[in-house]
Write a structure and sequence with these properties.
Elements (H helix, E strand, L loop, with lengths): L8 E3 L6 E7 L4 E6 L4 E6 L5 E6 L2 E9 L4 E7 L2 E7 L5 E4 L9 E4 L4 E4 L4 E5 L5 E6 L6 E4 L4 E5 L1 E5 L6 E2 L1 E2 L2 E2 L4 E6 L12 E5 L4 E4 L6 E3 L7 E6 L4 E5 L4 E4 L6 E3 L7 E7 L2 E6 L4 E5 L2 H43 L11 H5 L6 H7 L1
Antiparallel strand pairs: 1-30, 2-3, 3-4, 4-5, 6-7, 7-8, 8-9, 10-11, 11-12, 12-13, 14-15, 15-16, 16-17, 18-19, 20-21, 21-22, 22-23, 24-25, 25-26, 26-27, 28-29, 29-30
Length: 365
């Protein structure tokens, strides 16, 4: 049996603009999109309704990710490429330090944010606002994933890299893959000697490729000729959405079946969270479906892993901050100034061996 049949229902989004990407924060869904001249953000409410948040100075965002601390979106601003970051989906900070090229894809690896676009440069960031180029992909970057030990990038083919700097073109049946691909998705599993499908890549004319490791790829029969736009692993199946409102599902990445869709609008992104599957697309289209039991169990596991990683990251930050403070205090002590504020100590304070001003000591306690 391939996969469970989901029932999809449309939701009111309060906008007719195109919706391009969606992310789950652990508490809410956040959607980004674009109009003719400005971008937008939508946030979900507990009752299933959506709130529109206008985004100033943004022509459109193409991709969105949640890091555990921040929502990071990438796309196009008035002067070229633009990124923006937010804690809550309502208040955003912006950055234009990525040049004139638009960014089309952004991911979070658990330690670092990576993004790319048509110029082929893979960029990294710790906060979503300050970026540096780390490597050049000899191809436009439409979509990318990181499997823990391998970057996989798709557009007019498939490129892979262990370090983000040296890239290899992948083949299908001995020939370089030159097909137009829109998205690559990973099921989160580590490669083993007996791995089956761990990654899929989807694109034009119903094209679906599957791979156990990102290196060896096989073409699969999708049963359609629609332009497939996006894909996600739900915990029990791959979901693929695209042109004409098409929704495909597969538990193994090999055999695919179509699901009933209540729309013919192009769907551009799909995400999971809060017990729901949510797909978004053109003219403000939002579809929602309930997760099955396996998908809910997978979501709980993923949230536990994310929470543990968040606690570990926060603790590492606290330790690093304490270490930096100790180093600074040691430097100030050697210079004979207050180790808290850095201002000179009085002669009497130095004579009595004090290292802090009385007021600084009071506040530091």
């Amino acid at each position: 049996m391939n996969s469970a049949i989901a029932v999809w229902r449309s939701q009111i989004s309060e906008t007719t603009k195109n919706l391009s990407s969606i992310a789950w924060t652990g508490r809410q869904f956040v959607i980004v999109g674009s109009g003719w001249s400005d971008g937008l953000v939508l946030t979900s409410q507990e009752n299933g309704t959506w709130t529109l948040v206008e985004s100033p100075d943004v022509q459109g965002m193409n991709s969105l990710v949640w890091t555990g601390d921040w929502l990071v979106a990438v796309g196009l601003g008035a002067g070229g490429g633009r990124t923006m970051a937010s804690k809550d989906g309502r208040n955003w900070s912006f950055a234009d330090n990525i040049g004139r090229q638009v960014l089309t894809s952004v991911i979070w690896t658990g330690k670092q944010i990576f993004a790319g676009g048509p110029d082929g440069w893979l960029r990294s960031s710790g906060d979503g606002l300050n970026w540096k180029a780390i490597g050049f992909v000899p191809m436009n970057i439409e979509s990318l994933v990181f499997t823990g030990d391998l970057f996989v990038v798709v557009r007019d083919g498939i490129q892979t890299s262990r370090d983000g700097k040296d890239w290899t073109s992948q083949r299908l049946d001995g020939k370089l893959i030159c097909s137009s691909l829109s998205c690559v998705a990973w099921n989160g599993q580590k490669a083993t000697l007996h791995s089956s499908t761990r990654l899929i890549a989807v694109g034009r004319e119903g094209l679906i490729l599957s791979s156990p490791d990102g290196i060896k790829w096989k073409k699969r029969d999708s049963g359609c000729k629609n332009h497939l736009m996006s894909a996600v692993w739900t915990g029990s199946r791959f979901l693929v959405i695209g042109e004409g409102g098409i929704i495909l599902a597969s538990s193994d990445g090999v055999s695919w079946e179509s699901q009933d869709s209540p729309t013919t609008e192009t769907l551009r992104a799909v995400a999971t969270g809060g017990g729901r599957l949510v797909a978004v697309g053109d003219k403000g289209m939002i579809l929602s479906s309930e997760m099955d039991a396996n998908e809910r169990a997978f979501e709980t596991l993923q949230q536990t892993i994310a929470d543990n990683l968040q606690r570990e990251t926060s603790e590492n930050k606290r330790r690093a901050e304490k270490e930096r403070k100790r180093e600074l205090q040691a430097i100030r002590a050697a210079a004979g100034v207050c180790i808290e504020c850095g201002e000179p100590l009085s002669f009497l304070q130095k004579l009595t061996g004090k290292k802090r001003h009385n007021l600084c000591k009071e506040f530091s306690m």
